[in-house]
Structures are given as C-alpha cells and as structure tokens.
Design goal:
The complex is a heterodimer of chains A (218) and B (254). Chain A is an alpha/beta fold. In chain A, 50% of the residues lie in helices and 12% in strands. Chain A folds into two domains: 4-127, Response regulator (Rossmann fold); 147-212, Arc Repressor Mutant, subunit A (Orthogonal Bundle). In chain A, α6 packs parallel to α10 and α8 (173-179) packs across α9 (184-198). The longest helix of chain A is centred in the last third of the chain and has 15 residues, at 184-198. The radius of gyration of chain A is 20 Å and the shape is elongated. Chain B is α+β, with helices and mostly antiparallel strands. Chain B is built from six helices and five strands, in the order ααααβαββαββ. Chain B has a five-stranded mixed beta sheet, with helices on one face. In chain B, α1 crosses α6 (219-230), α4 packs parallel to α5 (158-179) and α5 runs antiparallel to α6 (219-230). Classes of the chains: A alpha/beta (218), B alpha+beta (254). Chains A and B meet through α1 and α4 of A and α1, α2, α3 and α4 of B.
C-alpha cells in the first residue's frame, strides 16, 4: 500500500517533535516535511508535495491560515488541516473560508489527528462534531440553508430543553449529566427521545433544529 | 502763568503717559501670564494624556507578554504531553486521569491567556473579537445580539482595537452588574464620523456614570474613561426612549 506523506508546520519545537514522533509511529504514515513556520513550509513544498499538510494557526512570520491560502493556490493537490490551540468559532470559519479541509484543536485526543489525516485522504475533508456544529450554525443563521423537519413544532419537556441547550453549547453527555444532576443514562434517554421527536439522526440534527426554532441563541 | 500752565500740561501728559504705560504693561503682562498658564495647563493635559497612554500601554504589553508565554510555552508543553500519555498503556492505573488532567490544564491555559489577550482580536480583528466575546456570554440570562457591517477593521492599530474591545467589555460588565437588562445589542459600524460602537440595553438605566459615594472609584468606569482618551475618541450616554441605556463610542478616523 502506498504510504501517506505528511508535512508539518509548527513553531513550538516541543510539540513539533511529539507530533512527528507520533505520526511516524503510525503504519503507512510518513512525515516528509518538518517546517518551523508557514514561510518555511512554502519553501519546502516546492518539488516535494506531501498528501496532507498540518499547520498550526498561530506561528511567527506567517500564520496557518495565510499559509493555507497560499498552499491552496500554489499546490491545489495538497490537503491542509489546521491543528491549533485555538478553539473559537471565528478561527474555524476563517480557516474553512481559506480552503482548509479540517480543523482540530490540540487538546483533543492526539488520536484524532490520525483519524483526521485518514479522513482527509479518503474523503477530502475532516469535520468533527465541533466543526460541523460551528459551520451548520453559521449556515442556518445566514440563511444559506433552510433546515426542514418532517415533524411540526415538537413539544419538549423542560429538562429536554435544558439538554438541547447544553448540547448546543458543546457539552458532552457526561458534562450534561453533572450539570443537571442526572445519571449519564438518563441524559442518553432524553437525547434519544429528542432525536425521535424531531426525526434527527445525530447531534447535528438536534443543533440544526434548535437553531431553527430559536431554542438556542447563536 | 504760562510757565505754570506748561508745567501742569507737561505733568498731566507725563502722568497720563505713565498711567497708559502702566495699563499697557498690566494688560500685556496679564496676556502673557494667561498664555503661559494656558500653555502650562495644556502641557499638564498633554502629560496626563501621555501618562494614561503609557499606563495602558505598559499594562497591555505586560499582559500580552504573559499571555503569549502562557499560550506558546506552557500550552505547547502541555499539548505535547498528550503524545506521551498516548504512548502509555491506557489500562495502567491513572493513565486515563492523567490524560484528562492534561487536557483540562490545556483548556485553563487557553482561557487565562485569552482573558489577558483575546486570541481572536490578536489574530483577526475587533469585528470577530466582539462576536467571540458575545458568543462566550451565552450562558448568562441576558440575550446578547451582535451585529457589524461588512467593512474590514484589521487596518486599525491593534492597540486601538484592544482598547475599544476593553471598553465594550467594561460596558457589558456594568450592564450585567447594575442594569437588570434582558436584551443587549452591540453594533459595530464605520461611517464618515469614524468607527462607531453602540451598546444598547433595555435595563433600568441605573448604570453609574461617575464615581460616586455609592460606587466609589469603580475601576470599570476609570478604565472606560482612560481608554476613550487613549483612542482619542468620545463616549456618549443616553437614555433609551422606552427603557435602558444607549452608549455610543466614536473613534474618529484622521
């Protein structure tokens, strides 16, 4: 099987070394470019295009998104993932607007980086729960998509509304159970009941519904 | 007789001359003193402005330094620890907790560094930063609505953007503390007058505007005032027709 080639631009040496170490330990993965910042990456890309490039957002000289923009234009075959400490919506949106295929934060499980690279290779992009929520919320808000639901206005109990709101605020089931003083199983039950009421197949469906029906403010 | 007359006339003329001289002298002297005093108070004002500017610059610079070091140094070290934990056998005692603790610490570092220096403002502009500020206030029982026009604001100096951001932060703080408002709207726009931010609430209108006995030297108000001076702008407070307060901040563009 052909191995997956990866480029990394990261200005913090300690993190860079850890990342290179982990990725080179994955079967089929091979780190072919290690750059200290965006400019360094652009230089090293000439004549040596890897399949995927991981860019830190904040870097001295040229930041990740400005670098991504240039890569998108000069090396259209290279897929770019942003890997950053930042988790604010504004960064995710700015990154996607500039041709980035996925956005991962550094406090996510490092295994997610591997999943993201695999996903980018097989489907061309990687969206996790958080990024999908951010993008869908934005699209619904700006009227770019009009979510349609087969059911008319569903009726929710108070606790279900609480659960919906907490889901939209990106809390995990465990966090929600702690906040509402319920067991994890109870919350799972509520979640299932909410999805059934609005015919949603996953969390994204709940978020879309909530945004559309003003259950949450965005 | 004639001699006496001449003497009287000469004397009178001399006295008159002297009197006029004295008056002219006094007027000129007063003018000079006045101009000097004007100059002194102008210098004093300038010095005061310089002092405020220096104070804000020093504080923000120090905060920026700490924020960046926290973010770049500690943040990177903590994130890189995730790789080490990832190599450990998850079945071993404490490995899962270690991973969770490292993740939580990373988030704390991010939050603290963001409080010291808003990441979104630093990397993007005040336009996105205000959106982010409002977004992070979601859990509070006040509805915040933020709107902005399509203009690009990244041309503004970062220091000025930061000062404007801090003003809005303080205004929101005061609304949450005193106004008992349900809805707050924040709007950023650019017109011929300059950059304008309007913060409007539907609360009780009881936000202190000055340091009073009841609100002695509320730090927030001093912060707002000094930052308005810092950006060379103006601030205007009005009562909303129905309920609440409307605050308009304008930063003229030269």
């Amino acid at each position: 099987m052909k191995s997956v080639t990866i480029g990394i631009a990261e200005d913090q040496e300690i993190y860079r070394n850890g990342l290179v170490g982990m990725l080179n330990g994955v079967q089929n993965f091979k780190v072919t470019i290690v750059a200290e910042d965006g400019k360094d990456m652009l230089m090293k890309l000439k004549g040596n295009e890897p399949d995927v490039v991981l860019l830190d957002y904040r870097m001295g000289g040229m930041n990740g998104v400005d670098t991504a923009k240039k890569i998108y234009r000069r090396h259209p075959n290279v897929r770019v993932l942003i890997l950053s400490m930042y988790d604010a919506h504004e960064f995710v949106i700015r990154a996607i607007e500039n041709g980035v295929c996925g956005y991962i934060t550094k406090d996510d499980d490092p295994k997610e980086i591997i999943t993201a690279i695999e996903s980018v290779i097989s489907t061309g992009y990687y969206l996790n729960d958080r990024t999908s929520r951010i993008l869908i919320t934005r699209m619904v808000k700006s009227g770019q998509v009009q979510p349609k639901f087969e059911t008319e206005e569903a009726q929710f109990s108070n606790i279900e509304v609480d659960v919906i709101q907490l889901i939209c605020q990106e809390h995990s089931t465990y966090e929600i159970s702690k906040k509402l003083y319920k067991s994890k199983r109870t919350i799972d039950g509520h979640r299932a009941s909410i999805m059934k009421k609005i015919n949603a197949k996953n969390v994204t469906g709940i978020v879309m519904y909530a945004v559309k029906n003003n259950i949450v403010q965005v | 007789m004639q001699e006496i007359n001449i003497i009287v006339i000469l004397g009178t003329a001399a006295m008159l001359f002297l009197a006029i001289g004295i008056i002219v002298f006094i007027v000129v002297y007063q003018r000079k003193m006045f101009a000097k005093q004007n100059q002194i108070s102008k210098i004093r004002l300038e010095n005061q402005e310089k002092l405020i500017k220096a104070e804000i610059d020093t504080k923000e610079r120090e905060q920026r330094r700490i924020a960046q070091e926290l973010h770049d140094d500690i943040g990177a070290s903590l994130s890189s620890m995730r790789f080490i934990v990832g190599k450990m056998d998850p079945k071993l005692e404490g490995v899962k907790e270690l991973g969770a603790t490292v993740s939580r610490s990373t988030q704390s570092v991010r939050r603290i560094s963001n409080d010291l220096l808003p990441h979104v403002l630093e990397e993007l502009s005040i336009k996105e930063a205000l959106g982010n500020l409002v977004n992070n206030l979601e859990c509070i029982p006040i509805d915040f609505t933020y709107t902005s026009d399509d203009n690009d604001y990244s041309f503004l100096e970062k220091d000025v953007q930061l000062a404007m951001f801090r003003i809005v932060q303080e205004l929101i703080n005061n609304i949450m503390k005193y106004a008992e408002a349900k809805n707050v709207t924040i709007n950023l726009s650019r017109s011929n007058e300059g950059i304008m931010i309007v913060v409007s609430d539907d609360g009780n209108g009881n936000i202190p505007e000055q340091d009073t006995l009841k609100h002695p030297r509320t730090l927030g108000l001093k912060n707002i005032q000094s930052r308005v001076q810092y950006i060379g702008g103006s601030i205007k407070r009005e009562k909303n027709p129905q309920r609440g307060t409307k605050v308009t901040i304008i930063k003229p563009l030269v």
